[in-house]
Amino acid sequence: MLSAFAVLLCVTALLAYLNDRFLHFPTTVGVTLAGALASILLIVLDALGLPGLRGWAAGVLETLDFTEFVLNGILSVLLFAGALSLNARQMLRQRRSILLLAFLSTLISTALIGFAAYGVFALVGLDVPLMWALLFGALISPTDPVAVLDLLKRARVPVKIETLIAGESLFNDGVGVVIFLALAGAAGLGGHGAEVSAAGVAGLFAQEALGGLAFGALLGGLGFVLLRGVKEHTVEILLTLALVVGGYVAAAALGISGPLAMVVAGLVISAYKHTLFTPDTQELVEGFWETIDQVLNIVLFAFIGLDVLLTETTGAQILASVLLIGVALAARWISVALPFALVRAREGYGAYTVRLLTWGGLRGGIAISLALGLPDSPYRTHLVTVTYAIVLFTIAVQGLTIMPLVRRAVDATPDEG
């Protein structure tokens, strides 16, 4: 595994260098596209008589196991780092819109995409049961706007918009995983045994979500107590790292949502970071987590780019992918617009906010890792292929064309941050 990770890290560094030197795209977008192009090159070389290269690359990626790499590996670090970088007090002021988008929008999107996917799969001749289609809706609904946030920072957007998009993404990652696990329990998948009742699904959702939120607050409080008496930045970094890794493992053992726990713990530390850290140590601690966050995100998106084209596909799967790209966009717009109507006037968001949230709703590692984590069945390859297609479209097309919409949103939204 160490050798496989070393190969991935070296390839990622090369792709990031080529993007920075020649392409000048936002880093995560450019690395993903470069990874996809590298995969195409491997396929072409394999077809031209250099066998073994494609199999070797696939073997490296399989050794790392994308699902374990993301869900049980770097996700805890990414979510904590993202939460720590935010203005927790600003998020508290925008809590209604963030929580509505994270919970209600994700539920609406899951239902819309799930039922539509069931129809699309049937239309193209792929036999996918309704419960599996709903699982697809749950895994593809969470957004992963890492690349868009990079653009938002470059454009100097109002704090309100940046906080809204980042806050929604952090929470709906956790909510999406909880919904997926609840549906998996209803289908008798994912280690939940036999199918459970609707009440059981609701109970599982409550246990995962509410338990994760409460445990995250407890972790954040523990971190506050420990960090308050420490002034050495090395110890502060070690404590926060142990809080994240140990807390995530403990959440998994308790059967509650680790992603939500990491978000809440990060926000608690963020809210008190000016009290907990001196100006010098705060810069060092935040610099450490920012660097870790950026490096792991680049590695993750390189992984996506390399992995996305090494999966065998059929014509029916490609047709379903094209149709479901449109479905995912429409569902994203509806699921944002409906709950947003309840808070938009009260919280003073600009006219382009819904459009920015829709087009900026990139999908990424969470979706792919959940799809790859599905058990073997006749339906798994259909869901994996469509998930890859949607993720690649959102990163390559939406990620590269969102800047004009960002500028309009900036002009239409007052900065109250």
Give a description of the structure.
- The structure is a single chain.
- With 417 residues, this protein is mostly helical.
- It has helices at residues 2-23, 27-47, 53-64, 66-85, 88-93, 95-123, 130-140, 146-155, 159-186, 198-228, 233-254, 258-271, 273-276, 279-308, 315-340, 344-347, 353-359, 365-372, 380-401, 403-412.
- It is built from 20 helices and no strands.
- Helix 7 (130-140) packs antiparallel against helix 9 (159-186) and helix 11 packs across helix 14 (279-308).
Summarize the structure.
The chain has 417 residues and is mostly helical. The chain contains 20 helices and no strands.
Shape: globular
- Mean pLDDT rating: 86
Low-confidence stretches: none
Measure the end-to-end span. 45 Å
What's the helix count?
A: 20
What is the CA-atom radius of gyration, in angstroms?
21 Å
**Percent of residues in helices:** over 70%
Q: In percent terms, what proportion of residues is strand?
A: under 5%
Main location: membrane
Subcellular location: Cell membrane
Transmembrane segments: 69-86, 98-124, 130-149, 170-189, 209-227, 239-272, 322-342, 354-374, 386-406
Organism: Deinococcus daejeonensis
List the helices and strands and how they pair.
Blueprint (H helix, E strand, L loop, with lengths): L1 H22 L3 H21 L5 H12 L1 H20 L2 H6 L1 H29 L6 H11 L5 H10 L3 H28 L11 H31 L4 H22 L3 H14 L1 H4 L2 H30 L6 H26 L3 H4 L5 H7 L5 H8 L7 H22 L1 H10 L5
Helix pairs in contact: 1-2, 1-3, 1-14, 2-14, 2-19, 4-11, 4-12, 4-14, 4-18, 6-7, 6-9, 6-15, 7-9, 7-19, 9-10, 9-12, 10-11, 10-12, 11-12, 11-14, 15-17, 15-19, 18-19
